[in-house]
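hi!! sorry for the late reply, been swamped w classes. u asked for the two structures so here they r. pasted raw, havent cleaned anything up. first the sequence of the first protein and right below it the tokens
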Amino acid sequence: MQKLWIGIIVLLGATALILSFLFRTYYQIEGDTLKIVCGFLFKQEVDIKKIRKIEKTDNPISSPALSVRDRIEIYYDKYDSVIISPERQTEFIQILKLINKNISTNL
């Protein structure tokens, strides 16, 4: 009986983690900062002024992106990048380019 309770607790924990990724993944622009949140485990801030390039990608690497096919990779600083999948990519990129006109795009 004790093993059953342990299994239920593990299953509920895994379900909570998956649901947090599904319902708590978002990208928010606040001033010159892009805030990326994925579940309750992943939070990142990117200075929009440091973004160099944005490209479409089909890289399957784990990332704070709910879509598997419709992703963009944002390159910033010297070697850093993050893969995300905003719902309205074109509008999202236009807003980023309003803040940083030096962003190059290859879409």
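now the second protein. again sequence first, tokens right under
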Amino acid sequence: MSLAPVVILACGNPSRGDDALGPMLLDRLQDWLAGEGLSTGFELIGDFQWQVEHALDLAGRRLALFLDAGQRTPAPWVLRQVQALATPTPSTHALSPEAVLAVLARIGQPAPPTFVLGVAGERFELGEGLSAAASRHAEGAFALLQALCRTPRVDAWQALATGEPGGFVRWSARDAQ
């Protein structure tokens, strides 16, 4: 079995308000990809948080996208390209996308061009539902996801990232807590 050329990793907790954005968008994307006949080009992976093991999901891919909600993410969303951390975070729990890439480098695997799509959220309390603002932001982020999946090329993704004002704002997995 061959790997899909593009992997999309979403994280979030559906029980924590706007933290549900990642899994919600991933589910919606899966249905859209199937309807468009594009499923074979993508592997979609969802989890509560990114961990060391997710580095293996990146190996052998042509492109990768991390998808998550963030409290300090500029509205409505931020798309940026990321690189491995020079010094990996000494943790096996709740890694940033850059730390996951660093793990991949440590095991001697080349990293694919990797992007992060952070969707602005407001409320992350346990038991809360999705906020109205997050719902609006999700619509814009889903339109972006569709554009990314229609043109799964690094140059196209870079053009979308650099074309968005503030496209390379510092963002981390910790913002989603």
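hope this helps!! also noticed smth abt the second:
The CA atoms of residues 44 and 102 lie 21 Å apart.
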